[in-house]
Amino acid sequence: MHPGLSIRQLEKSYTQGKPVLKGISLELGAREVVAIIGPSGTGKSTLIRCINRLVQPSAGEIWFQGQDLVKLSRKSLREARRQIGMVFQEYNLVERLTVMENVLSGRLGYMSAWSAWFRRYKAADIELAFTLLEQVGLAGFEHQRADSLSGGQRQRVGIARAVMQHPKLLLADEPTSSLDPKTSVEVMQILVEMGERLQIPIVINMHDVALAQKFASRIIGMSGGAVVYDGAPAGLSTQILQSIYGGEEWLQ
After folding, report:
1. Could you tell me the pTM of the whole model?
2. pLDDT tens digits for 23-76?
3. In angstroms, what is the C-alpha Rg of the chain?
């Protein structure tokens, strides 16, 4: 099976001589749910953001849909990003706009400047937005402003917006970190269901190890900017978790 995403010797340094990512190489299958776990500051968010080049890598390659994303021009990168949905930790919604307007904004990258300015969405896009809102449990919320929603509801809007892009890859940067345990499970269920419907890989950066084990088909453990575990959730032994997070006290 050809990988959905191929990362080769990826490096990133924000300060010269202090690498945040140290030669990351990963092959992601076309329908995997991959959870990236590890302590704060180990490079999880940087890795996610390098993939869609919200952060520019210092070295390495990121192959997706036959292109090295690291080498793309600005125009080509805009086109490639259409196929990479992103779900943010802080939702990244336009608070003054309605739920429907936020979801439909996922189509802006496919529209002409004139159509985007006047929000001239196609009927098929509007129909899809209604369908997605129903799938994420927000049917009837179409006309509510984003700033009137709870955190869990906002994240559902963020997922629907990402799926509106018709992505070939879905990235999620700590999508449950601000949510209570019940809502976190619901959001993860929605993410996994969307991946199954679209038959695309999902890469999720998260802190909750138990949640990662419950929903991911593969777990990548990072420590100190490097991959120290790459395998099945069931393989996360106490020893491996110690190698990822260090120490023993937190496991008690």
Report:
1. 0.91
2. 999 999 878 999 999 998 899 999 999 999 999 999 999 999 899 999 999 889
3. 18
